[in-house]
Amino acid sequence: MSDARAAPPRWLPWLLRFGLAFALLNALWTFENRWPGFGVRTMPRLSFELCLAVVALMGWVRWRGRLSARAATAWSLGFVFLVFVRYADVTAPAVLGRPVNVYWDGRHAAELLRLAAQTLPAWQLLGLALALLLGAVLLVGLVRRAIVVLARCLAWERPGPWLLAAVAACTLSFAAYVPGERDTRWFFSLPLTPTLVHQGQLLARVAWPASAESVLGAGPAFDGDLSGLIGPRGPADVLLVFAESYGTVSFDRPEQAVGLVAARAALDEAIHAGGRTVVSARVTAPTFGGASWLSHAALLAGVDTSDPGDHDLLLASDRPTLVRHFARHGYRTVGWMPGLKRPWPEGAFYGFDRLAKDADMGYTGPNFGYWRIPDQAALALLHTQELAPTTDRAPRFVVFPTTSTHAPFHPLAPFVPGGSLRTSSQTYSAAQALAAQAAPLAVREPLPPYLESLRYQHAWLADYLKQRSARPLVMVVVGDHQPPALVSGPAVSWDVPVHVISEDRALLQRLLGSGFAPGLTPPAEALGPMQRLTEVLLAVFNAPGAHEVQGFEHVGAPASSPPHTGS
User: Fold this and answer.
1) Among the listed residues 272, 267, 274, 270, the one whose alpha carbon sits nearest the alpha carbon of residue 246
2) pLDDT of res. 82
3) What pLDDT is stored for residue 107 in this prediction?
4) What is the pLDDT of residues 339-385, one digit of tens each?
């Protein structure tokens, strides 16, 4: 029965029944992921939302006089729905490395179900479906029984004031929390409401494209023809390198700039030795110290992604991207992502012809920590599989986010001269990997290993440009964000450097007219936010391909200016 009019006659039985029912329901809203994987574990935390639900249930019982069977079922179904929300909320970060995204994760789940239907025997599919159905029914029944017991306890008026006082105290504690100052939520589990609100907003905006357009704002037209990339020897490959944690602090802080003088001089020499030149600028990243994907999306789509919610909305939209723009003009588009270890369903937004994750690259060398593929080896594999010169292949547009300069900048693979065009199995020995991992981790003084990782970055870039074949190449190197504050220091900008390296002096001359400067040192003034760089590159790539430009001698000369040391 679900009649809530009969109240327990004494405190002890009431406390026992109420406590058991509340504890069960609380466990179902506060469990955490058993990392790594899909399992869960209970945590000694309190659900603030369950405290509010108890007050709501008490009001319902006092108003209606009892909890009817139909109402008990409705309450149970709503509660179980939030149990599934909780599971998705704690499992997505462990499995996918990011918060849950209903739009993309739902599509990914549907694809997995279709794959299972095609690969598993019918009896196994039927057994799995029945097991899931039975589990759901049992869970609803268990939750319903707990809610009915809770409702009967709440029908007794005597404990009411005490419950209201306890919930009021929890509410004050929850509201008094101030990040970094007062931690009054240490005994609470993370609430579900923010996830529900965010996902609801996302789905609502996806359902009404006009709303999404107004939130994201106007973006580039992506209507050019890329004629500015066509030279005497045909269209150039475009390699867009997102350099992890490469910030302008490495130019602006004298103690960092001095430590990189030799590495930058060697890179500059390698650029000019191959008949290429370089121009540089700075732009403002939409993030600082982490969340690299915000910068990737801002540049590839030309949209402001400084709000993570806008980033999620962007990836659920049909906005054009640089990737699709290049594909429409005959380029093979490749996402070369050695740091991508988990499923990435939302990556379909960009439209790569090939999206290569860690496991897809064919790396057979020893592992170097969590980011197991060193950048130099990743570039060697990229060259072998996609960029090696052939007479009949389509030009490439490649997006390559690096990993070796990622915090904590350890372990760092040794630089191997001449290794940027070798296959990974020829590049490192097991002893080198062990030595790199055995090096001390400088947690308290991260600046030296950060600078060493940047020297490594400059070295493999120089090594590749020295050996790179004669096929035309436009390399764009852009920092994704400044390094963490432990390295960058207090009160620094969110600016990152941009270098464009090419043999096409007409193309680089057009960049000079857009705010770039000759050499590797960017000007002190930023072009604007990251999405502004998208517009600049599109304009330059789409320009008519005149290849003899007057007054370009200053761009062809090696950079000799000292590192910028402004604040």
Assistant:
1) 267
2) 94
3) 65
4) 998 888 888 999 999 999 999 999 988 889 888 999 999 999 999 99
Q: Which of 184-193, 499-508, 539-548 has the lowest mean pLDDT?
A: 539-548
Q: What HEC string does 49-62 produce?
A: HHHHHHHHHHHHHH
519 neighbors 511 (Cβ within 8 angstroms): no
Contacts of 437-441 with CB under 8 Å at 24 or more apart are: 437/368, 437/369, 437/411, 439/410, 439/411, 439/412, 441/408, 441/410
How many Å apart are CA 459 and CA 455, to the nearest integer?
6
What is the average pLDDT across 253-272? 95
286 phi/psi in degrees, rounded to 5:
-80, 0
Rounded Cα distance, 217 and 199, in Å:
20
What's the full length of the chain, in residues? 567
Q: Using alpha carbons, select from 500, 512, 545 the residue that is nearest to residue 225.
A: 545
Helix (H) or strand (E) holding 238: strand 237-243
| Domain 210-546 -> CATH class | alpha beta
Categorize the per-residue pLDDT at 258 as very low, low, confident or very high, splitting at 50, 70 and 90: very high
How do beta strands 277-284 and 517-518 pair? Answer: antiparallel
Domain segments of the chain as ranges: 11-175+190-205, 210-546
pLDDT in tens, 461-496: 999 998 876 679 999 999 999 998 888 888 889 999
User: Average pLDDT in the 397-411 region?
Assistant: 94
Residues 358/375/403/325 CA torsion (nearest 10 deg): -70
The two beta strands, 234-235 and 230-231, are antiparallel
- Starting at the edge strand found earlier in the chain, the sheet holding 277-284 runs 354-356, 332-336, 396-401, 237-243, 473-479, 495-502, 277-284, 517-518
How does pLDDT run across 493-524, given as a tens digit for each residue? 999 999 999 999 999 999 998 889 999 999 99
3-state secondary structure 436-458: HHHCCCCCCCCHHHHHHHHHHHH
**pLDDT at 51 (0 to 100):** 95
Alpha helices in 67-121 (DSSP H): 69-96, 102-119
User: Using N-to-C axis directions, what is the helix angle for 193-207 and 209-216, rounded to 10°?
Assistant: 110
The amino acid at 422 = R
Q: CA gyration radius for the chain?
A: 29
